[in-house]
Amino acid sequence: MDATIYHNPRCSTSRKALQKLRDAGIEPTVVKYLDEPYTTEQLTGLIADAGLTVRQAARRRESLYSELGLEGKSDEEMLAEMVTHPILVERPFVVTDKGTRLARPLEALDEIL
Questions:
Q1: SS3 for 53?
Q2: pLDDT digits (tens, 9 = 90+) for 93-102
Q3: Sequence-separated (6 or more) residues with CB below 8 Å from residue 60
Q4: Which uninterrupted H or E stretch holds 100?
Q5: How far is CA 46 from CA 11, 25, 66, 88, 89, in A?
Q6: Annotated catalytic sites, by residue?
Q7: Beta carbons within 8 Å of 14's beta carbon, 6+ residues apart
Q8: What pLDDT, on a 0 to 100 scale, did the predictor assign at position 4?
Q9: What sections of the chain are H helices per DSSP?
Q10: Is the Cβ–Cβ distance between 17 and 109 less than 8 Å?
């Protein structure tokens, strides 16, 4: 099975998701999205494919979220900030042949493995 994980190695949930893929016998393509930022089209597609809204995919606990005043912004404005500042994107997104999920909670991966 082909898989891609949009990974932040500093995030424990992202590390656990990567290990879960490997434990399932899958060696995924690892995209370190802080080094290789999302395009607007790519992020829009991941969010839609995972069945989320832009707000659900935003990392609201990140201090930059408040600093930029994203709570009152439109989805389009929020998406633009998430593309500009990928730290604002919840993580990790995982894509397999069976679909796309945001691995929060980690058990969400079971649906696509």
A1: coil
A2: 999 999 999 9
A3: 70
A4: strand 99-102
A5: 19, 23, 24, 14, 11
A6: 11
A7: 5, 7, 8, 91, 92, 103
A8: 98
A9: 12-23, 40-49, 54-57, 63-67, 75-84
A10: yes
